[in-house]
Amino acid sequence: MDFDAFSGGIEPGGLRSKSDIGILICYMLHNINSPFPESDIVDIIQENSIANYFETSAAIAELVKCGNIEYTDDDKKMLRVTNNGILISSQLYNSISVTVRQKTIGAIMRLAAQKKLEKENPVTVIHADGGGYNVNFRVTDGMRDLMSLTLFVPNIEEVQAVRNNFYQHTDKIYSAVLASVIGDDNMITEALKDLKK
Would you give the distance in Å from CA 155 to the centre of its chain? Predict the structure, then answer.
């Protein structure tokens, strides 16, 4: 195997071949099986020290040029694998180590789940009269609202903190609020125990 990719910032076990980087990108898009932001693919590969930013970006450009992956939008932000890319992924994925495959697929699946959670449970932030922010949290089942709650938050740092906490504990927060409004003491106790975990 020729090591033809720049390897600065890459950990041992990372990819040092341009073809391997391309195979990995096809493999990631094949496994996620839906359009995915190019920037997130680059970030996952770079943040896990699998390949550097420039080599990953170059590999994406080459895969698009060869018809192995394609953009799904006019802004060229979302990528999907083509039939050619699926063939590459299916036949050559074994050239990528199991560790690298598991690391990237785990990261892309977590990110996809987070994006789905955020899409289905939107948080909107509006400047409040007199200062501060009104933060609206919605919990849905994907089709209808189960809960909508608005909190006043005094500054933007706390807005970010409550938003992050909401997304880390969406189901637990919903359960705690539901238990409180129902007035079931046992349910409240259980919900509060869950929130502390």
Answer: 26
